[in-house]
Write a structure and sequence with these properties.
Elements lengths: L10 H16 L6 E2 L8 E2 L10 E9 L3 H8 L5 H14 L4 E11 L4 H18 L2 E9 L9 E12 L14 E6 L8 H10 L15 H5 L7 H10 L2 E6 L4 H7 L6 E5 L8 H10 L3 H7 L4 E7 L4 H10 L4 E9 L4 E3 L1
Parallel strand pairs: 4-5, 9-12
Antiparallel strand pairs: 1-2, 3-6, 4-6, 7-10, 7-11, 8-10, 9-11
Protein name: Phosphoribosylformylglycinamidine cyclo-ligase
Catalytic activity: 2-formamido-N(1)-(5-O-phospho-beta-D-ribosyl)acetamidine + ATP = 5-amino-1-(5-phospho-beta-D-ribosyl)imidazole + ADP + phosphate + H(+)
Keywords: ATP-binding, Cytoplasm, Ligase, Nucleotide-binding, Purine biosynthesis
């Protein structure tokens, strides 16, 4: 007799996964979240926007990319949710938006309740760190399309910003300072190149390069640092012109997106030391510097462009919040490019 379970979809496992994740998701709750008894939708009380003069909703969607393959291979599922939230919610922070809520989508070959609960638990934990609520999600079982241990994650987030406080290139001026916020590691970009290096060199996930102090696999799964609350703390100071989330494309390309066509950002390589994991990958993979520059964050996960008289206070605020930061460079007249020198 044919059944849905015989086709590879286990509804009972999905229901158990939901039960396992409920308590973790609840920890990300904001007071504006309204319960939907049916569970089909996430509800958020929009009357919270009444305190705004002209609220703009900001939205972002993204995934984690091929880093999920390393999580699968290592059997570690608790941190990949941080990567998802970092990719989605920190994009909202760039325009100055306060993150409000997020939804997730997980596709897998087979629902293993404990694995799904670990992934969603990580998403919820990271949402709490970012100050947003995880209001809903979907787990889809795709037997025949994905192997039993394969999965992928994606999500979407929504935030709000006052229209006349919107950050961006039009605010940037010559003389502004560029502040770097350290990454926690590779974050979630460049993993296709990482996997290529692992496949074509003597490096393995079990390798223990001397300058890392732990296995390469552990290093590569370091969760993405989440900057949303740090960006909001800087914005509260006044004097913040723009942010740049350093993701795919690297430092210069992402920072250039936050510049008008009338200025350049001159960035000093000498202002920071590139973390060991990047040096290890570059050396073993024989990766040219230009390729490293456009693929990885090289130790800078977020950049802030601030008024020159705000720079010292911005660095103090970030230090108080436990975020390693430094002045990376400055803005000069130019043509809209970021220059690493």
């Amino acid at each position: 007799m044919t059944s849905y379970e015989a086709a590879g979809v286990d509804i009972a496992a999905g229901e158990r996964a939901v039960e396992l994740m409920k308590a973790r998701v609840a920890r990300s709750r904001r007071p504006e979240v309204v319960d939907d008894a049916s569970g089909f939708a996430g509800l958020f009380d929009a009357s919270a926007f009444l305190r705004y003069r002209r609220p703009l909703l900001a939205t972002s969607t993204d995934g984690v990319g091929t880093k999920v393959d390393l999580a699968r291979r290592l059997g570690v599922y608790t941190t990949i949710g941080h990567d998802l939230v970092g990719m989605v919610i920190d994009d909202l922070a760039v325009c100055g938006a306060e993150p409000l809520f997020m939804t997730d989508y997980i596709a897998c070959g087979k629902v293993v309740p404990e694995r799904i609960a670990d992934i969603v638990g990580g998403i919820a934990e990271a949402c709490a760190l970012a100050g947003c609520a995880l209001v809903g999600g979907e787990t889809a079982e795709h037997p025949g399309l994905l192997e039993a241990d394969e999965f992928d994650v994606a999500g979407a987030g929504t935030g709000v910003v006052e229209a006349d406080e919107l950050l961006g290139p039009e605010r940037v001026r010559p003389g502004d300072a560029v502040i770097a916020m350290a990454s926690s590691g590779i974050h979630s970009n460049g993993y296709s190149l990482v996997r290529h290096i692992l496949a074509t060199t003597d490096l393995t996930l079990e390798s223990e390069p001397a300058d890392l102090g732990r296995s390469l696999g552990e290093e590569l799964l370091t969760p993405t640092r989440i900057y949303a609350k740090d960006c909001l703390a800087l914005t509260a100071l006044g004097g913040v012109r723009a942010f740049a989330h350093i993701t795919g494309g690297g430092l210069a390309a992402n920072l250039a997106r936050s510049l008008p066509a009338t200025v350049d950002a001159v960035l000093r390589r000498s202002s920071w030391e590139v973390p060991p994991v990047f040096r290890t990958l570059q050396a073993h993979g024989n990766v040219p510097q230009a390729e490293m520059d456009k693929t990885f964050n090289l130790g800078v996960g977020m950049a802030a462009i601030v008024a020159p008289d705000t720079a010292d206070e911005a660095l103090r605020v970030l230090a108080d919040r436990g975020v390693p930061a430094w002045q990376l460079g400055e803005v000069v007249p130019g043509t809209g490019t970021a220059l690493l020198s």
